[in-house]
Specification:
CATH topology of chain B: Helix Hairpins
Largest interface: A-B, 57 and 56 residues
Largest sheet of chain A: none
CATH architecture of chain B: Orthogonal Bundle
Structural class of chain B: mainly alpha
Pfam family, one (chain A): PhaG_MnhG_YufB
Helix content of chain A: over 70%
Strand content of chain A: under 5%
Transmembrane segments (chain A): 45-70
Oligomer: heterodimer
Family (chain A): Belongs to the CPA3 antiporters (TC 2.A.63) subunit G family.
Radius of gyration of chain A: 19 Å
Number of domains of chain B: 1
Distance between the termini of chain A: 69 Å
Largest sheet of chain B: none
Number of helices of chain A: 4
Order of helices and strands of chain A: HHHH
Protein name (chain A): Multicomponent Na+:H+ antiporter subunit G
Shape of chain B: flat
Keywords (chain A): Membrane, Transmembrane, Transmembrane helix
Distance between the termini of chain B: 49 Å
């Protein structure tokens, strides 16, 4: 049992724990916006941990560049998904307004309608 | 049992719990947005699971699959969110 093996094991456990946390989060949270918050954990930090584990296990340049590409695409596309889902949720009233502390977008839409 | 074998069992249970929770939300989900979101989470868990399997067994056979999934995961959710009309919101 070497140090690299322990590091790989811990990184995989971090990724698995974040996946489980996201699953529990999207079951327990009340509306689409809060579930979006829970869903992003394995998509970014979990994937990063598992990619570092692969690089530690197979340290070649090809693996490193492919892992950087995977992370880049994930970081490019996941904010787009979250933004579009959040926008559609707001526009179609899937937001629990009683749970919001402050609704800035509502105020902006009201100001825009007045003009 | 070696250390990585123990880790693989624990990680498998955790991935399984996450995936089952995502499937539960796909089945129950009150709106189609919840289902799209849960599908995204299921895909992310699948990507993480593929990577964990590669790291445990020390091979890189499915690294390209991870790349393709990371590239095209965005299509489904964005098309659902973009073309969702107010009336068919369920």
């Amino acid at each position: 049992m070497s140090a690299a093996e322990i590091a790989v094991g811990l990184l995989i456990l971090v990724s698995a724990f974040l996946s489980m946390a996201a699953g529990i989060g999207i079951v327990r949270f009340p509306d689409v916006l809060t579930r979006l918050h829970a869903a992003t954990k394995p998509q970014v930090l979990g994937l990063a941990a598992v990619l570092v584990a692969i690089i530690v296990q197979v340290p070649t340049w090809g693996v490193l560049t492919t892992a950087v590409l995977v992370m880049t695409f994930q970081l490019l596309t996941q904010p787009m998904t979250a933004h579009m889902l959040g926008r559609a949720a707001y526009r179609t009233d899937h937001v629990r307004r009683d749970l919001l502390i402050e609704d800035d977008l509502d105020r902006d839409i009201a100001e825009h309608d007045q003009q | 049992m070696t250390f990585l074998a123990v880790v693989s069992v624990i990680a498998g249970i955790m991935f399984g719990v996450g995936a089952i929770a995502a499937v539960y939300r796909i089945i129950r989900g009150p709106s189609i947005l919840d289902r799209a979101l849960a599908t995204d989470v299921l895909l992310a868990i699948a990507i993480c699971g593929l990577g964990a399997e590669m790291a445990i067994n020390k091979h890189i056979d499915t690294l390209v699959v991870m790349l393709v999934l990371a590239m095209f995961a965005v299509v489904g959710s964005i098309s659902i969110a973009r073309f969702m009309a107010k009336e068919d919101a369920s």
